[in-house]
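Notes, Module 5: Reading structure tokens.

Key idea: the token line is not a picture. It is a compressed description, and you learn to read it the same way you learned to read a sequence, by spotting repeated patterns. We will look at two proteins. The first is printed below with its tokens.
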Amino acid sequence: MARKASTRPSIHSKTRADVASDVSQRSLTYADAGVDLDTYDQFIDTVDSVLKRTHGPRVIQNPGGFAGLFRLDYNEKLFKRNYKDPVLVACTDGVGTKVSLASKARIFDGLGIDLVAMSVNDLIVQGAEPLIFLDYIAVEKVDKRVLGTLLKSVAEGCRIAGCALIGGETAEMPGVYRSGELDMAGFAVGVVELRRAMNPLRVLPGDVVLGLASSGVHSNGYSLVRKVVDHAGLELDRVYPELEGPKGEDKGKTLAQVLLTPTRIYADSIVRTMRQYRVKQVVSGMAHITGGGLADNLVRALSDKVDAKIDAGSWPTLPVFRFLQKHGNIAEAEMRRVFNMGIGYCVIVKPTFAGAVAERLAKCGEKVYTIGKIVKGTGKVSVV
């Protein structure tokens, strides 16, 4: 049986005044304002299983709660065995304008890892063990596929970092964000034994600076990255042979895939290595290399009594940085000021233990380079 045509006049046959009159005659809803609570609730219903994948015995289940619960000491007494004078460490960060590039390329499966990395990599610089993580995602309109991908990515980042994803917030904000736009922020909490917390005064002349390889651009400098892409007319979905590494890394990947490579999370490697030295304080300082490059971040680990001398030729520069430099005609000094240039994390080690620490980090899966040393000075970093 054929469908009957509607006997009601099409909205297209009405005047704007008629439509406005129709709207004014009925009760306004949240959906009229651009927020679909049914779609939002359906998405929220899928969140619980993703969070639980990151939960260990310290997480206290709190269905329907307004906040997550995390036990500092649980029945196995692990916390008491590890900490006598525990200090909580907290930090927050976002992914920056990398989200704009991801939205344009429609590639979202690494952004959650970026989000976790930006906070936990800062947290472990203090010598802390990551415990819990929360996320905040703001969108113009709930897209269950995109949000589901982002949330799974956040959970994967927490799994890699060894922390529990115990909650978060998804905000639907039409009128603030345009169609397809989104923003993300993350919040991490960890713990460190007070006497083992990092202190710049422990960094002394003779200490060795180890550099851990980055996975790419990470999550800093994307305003300049996007400017280069637009200025040079680069195609995000094109494969550029220049981006391939010497051992075939990134072979066959599009420009978008290379630029959206997730930030490397160093938490597991650093925590495992630090646990090997519970008595001796062989690591005197650390730095997460983010905005400002190596020099502006490593200096934060130094007192005003020492300098760090870094050999810029002691590690390979990733192809993506030379690619961006060439197509953007960017000066070398500007490149080193904005990007990590291949080193995502620094560990300052007592000289006697430098080889052993480097070996342990390598066994944890890191590419480790001896990139410099500490000398007497006034709290400066020089990259030669």
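Here is the second protein, with the sequence above and the tokens below, as before.
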Amino acid sequence: MPGPLSPAELEHVLRAHGLPWRDGQAAPAITARVLHVPALDGGFAIKVFGPEQRARARAEAALLRHLGTEPLTDVGVQQRVPPSSGELLLALDERLVLVTRWQAGAHRSYQAIDADGWEGLGRAMAELHLRLDQAPWLPLPSLMADLRARNLEADRRLIDEHRRHVEASGRPDAELVAQLLGDRSVLLDRHAERSQATPPSADDRPIHNDYNVHNFLFHADGPPTILDWERSIFAPREFELCRCLGHLPLVAPSHAWALVEGYLQRRSLRPALVRWALDVAVSVHALKHWPVEQWLAREPGSEERIPALAEIVRALAEQAAELEAFGAELEARTRVQEAP
């Protein structure tokens, strides 16, 4: 995989952060935008943001700076390495560069995370939310502003347009993609309008907004590390919990409750927002157009994403009664927890 930096640019980045450089320094590409600079202590991660990602870069760097001000007990975050200039990020032409300490660990599929693991992830989320309560204001996008501005009829037309292109593609997995689009239509009709009716008690606070298995890093000892803060937004905290739950209440209810109980050990949830947050979390799947857009464009990795996404959306579409029952019990539990 080609790296996002030339050897000369890599040398400049390391020197600008006061990090050692040696001729022939290797920095394998982990993704199209992330390099790993190995060292005896684990080394460093270098993340490169393009010109169109400058706002995301600044948000991630500012959040990591805030989260690193004091030790966290139930969660780990990447340790930011600031440029020697004292700037938030290093400017490289029109790109921005974020350097952090490399985090060793292992990713796990949701099926491989046991109840204790989900409980720990719930505590981790709650501790992050508590720390983010004191975060300085950041120019993050607002979930509720996006919901209010959303044109659901335009979303319906786009799903129909994608369905026509998928059916005409003749590709081997076209049937699965068409099924995904049909299930998304069901979820849009069932949940999206309700999600636009935001409760009066809803508020905007910083959240990770990508709290899922791709960004959980587990270790032999100690709490999990949560990676990748560039998609952070302002949103009610109840939304982050419900979005993380996904279809877990339908396929592994005990694990879903472990996540909830772990969160409630550290932080309360507002009962008046729980049902609405579930609607919004489901609507996110209905309104997520980019996986099919990438599939239609035959982008690398796009075919591999479809089966897991189709599994989640199919469960949410087919098991509406079970999801509604879970929402009712979740609201009841949060009322009991809030009562004292």
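Summary for the second protein:
- The chain has two domains: 7-101, 110-338.
- DSSP finds 13 helices and nine strands in the chain.
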